[in-house]
Specification:
single chain; 477 residues; alpha/beta; 17 strands; binds (3S,4R)-3-hydroxy-2-oxopiperidin-4-yl beta-D-xylopyranoside
């Protein structure tokens, strides 16, 4: 029996999508099947974001929270870009500086800015061997695996509904010709750490697109072949992966590969979206402009290439500023590379990525951790109901509990459940716990007790052992 090894796309949220793409969808509905000539398709966009949107794509930049008070920086950001990536603020060291103590303040500044300006958000990065907090660097084995899963669960849950794409795992393959995984503390927790990370992210934010992201994978080589094999394997086994990010940091030693477009296309053919995630190209003048043009043309030629993110705004904002690799000079003036990028976006043909899953290719991947219990009170009743979803691994779990108020609303609530023997609660968020083993209960905290009729809130707890089969009951006060 032969089976198609490539799973269909998983249905994911659309970012604050390109306006023209929505016009496209609406026009498509009106003229059903007729060839479309769209107002604006041939017109020249005057900014990177608007022009990319006309092609059904985004154009983004890395943003540093501490520059959001720089008016030149923010002026360019708001004018030119419709997607942002936090340059450092969502990394493990920034978001969980000590174990189980989370700090989202700088990341939130970027998220708030993006949301109030209609930009989509790329989340970067949940699991990576670099920029780990010291406490994680010193962990190993099961303790590190559990800490990683907890980190992913907490961060992706916190931003649930806000992130277009998450870089779930960053830079997990070695450079050179081995095609091997990179040695790291995460890799030493077991070869399945990458798929465990993707499953945890999927459970925490099923609407976000989940990406694997790496560098030196931009052309066909031993490293990109190894990533390709992993993606193919994940798709065939139903491991939730939606996209591959190509960092695309280029310079004289690492130029734009001649087979850049072909490499993007072969990944796209596996049934994943491709994204150019950290583009910068060292150089200046015409040579640099031509290289940017090639990258844009490659993305536009691959229908599943969803967008391009440059890794900073002005040359002086770059992590490798001496190479002047970006589109604006230190004063914020447009460089030749800006003009060639905009022109390539405006000229580009290619097929825009589908805005929804095409008919005949329905999403079939079920959530990896469906709620294990139905609500304890039928919707419409008084009181409150609770349902739980579990993300389990050998030796531990994270439970996310959704509390929904019945027809009278709540002033407060308590969720009770009985843990199986051997299981114990080790920490709790958005609720206050009584007991750690056997019969335990969770009471609302100050900010989430009051729910109007039908309104929901979530809390979570982590534990050791297995929580399979737990049944929460909710009592309102
Ligand atoms: C870089 C940031 O730009 C720097 O500010 C920081 O000091 C180090 O990290 N690959 C990635 C990015 O995935 O997170 C890196 O960002 C650049 C390389």
């Amino acid at each position: 029996m032969s089976m198609d090894p490539v799973r269909p796309d998983r249905q994911k949220r659309m970012g604050p999508g390109p306006r023209v793409a929505m016009v496209l969808a609406a026009a498509g509905a009106l003229v059903a099947g007729a060839a479309l000539t769209l107002p604006g398709t041939a017109s020249a966009g005057t900014t990177l974001g608007a022009s990319a949107a006309e092609k059904g794509r985004y154009f983004g930049t890395a943003v540093a929270a501490n520059k959001l008070s720089d008016s030149v920086y923010v002026g360019i950001l708001n004018r030119e870009f419709n997607s942002v990536t936090a340059e450092n603020e969502m990394k493990w060291d920034a978001t969980e500086p000590s174990q189980n103590s989370f700090n989202f303040s700088n990341a939130d500044r970027i998220v708030n800015h993006a949301q109030s300006n209609g930009m989509r958000i790329r989340g970067h990065a949940l699991a990576w061997h670099q920029q780990q907090p010291g406490w994680a660097q010193s962990l190993s084995g099961t303790a590190l695996r559990n800490a990683m899963l907890n980190h992913i669960t907490r961060v992706a849950t916190y931003y649930r509904g806000k992130i277009d794409s998450w870089d779930v795992v960053n830079e997990a393959f070695a450079d050179g010709n081995t095609g091997a995984r990179r040695d790291s503390n995460l890799q030493r927790t077991g070869n399945d750490w990458i798929e465990a990370a993707f499953r945890a992210a999927d459970a925490a934010d099923p609407g976000a697109k989940l990406c694997y992201n790496d560098y030196n994978t931009d052309g066909q080589n031993a490293k990109s072949n190894a990533v390709y094999a992993m993606v193919q394997d994940f798709k065939s086994r139903g491991v939730p992966i939606d996209c591959v990010g190509f960092q695309s940091h280029f310079n004289a030693q690492s130029p734009v590969p001649s087979d850049y477009q072909a490499n993007l296309q072969r990944f796209a053919n596996l049934g994943v979206e491709v994204q150019i995630t950290e583009l910068d190209i060292e150089g200046s003048g015409t040579a640099q402009a031509n290289n940017y043009q090639r990258v844009v043309q490659a993305c536009l030629a691959v229908s599943r290439c969803a967008g391009i993110t440059v890794w900073g705004i002005r040359d002086t904002d770059s992590w490798r500023a001496s190479g002047t690799p970006l589109l604006f000079d230190g004063s914020g003036n447009k460089k030749p590379a800006y003009t060639s990028t905009l022109n390539a976006l405006n000229a580009g043909g290619g097929t825009p990525p589908p805005t929804t899953t095409p008919p005949g290719n329905p999403p079939t991947t079920p959530p990896t951790t469906p709620p294990t219990t139905p609500p304890t009170t039928p919707p419409g009743g008084a009181g409150c109901s609770a349902s739980v979803s579990l993300n389990s691994w050998n030796g531990g779990f994270v439970a996310t509990v959704r509390v929904t108020a019945g027809s009278s609303g709540t002033n407060g609530w308590t969720v009770s459940l009985t843990l199986p023997g051997g299981a114990a609660v080790t920490n709790t968020w958005n609720a206050s716990a009584s007991g750690t083993t056997g019969a335990v209960s969770f009471r609302n905290v100050a900010y989430n007790g009051r729910l109007t009729a039908g309104q929901s809130t979530e809390f979570g707890f982590q534990g050791t052992g297995s929580a399979t089969g737990i049944t929460p009951t909710c009592t309102a006060s």
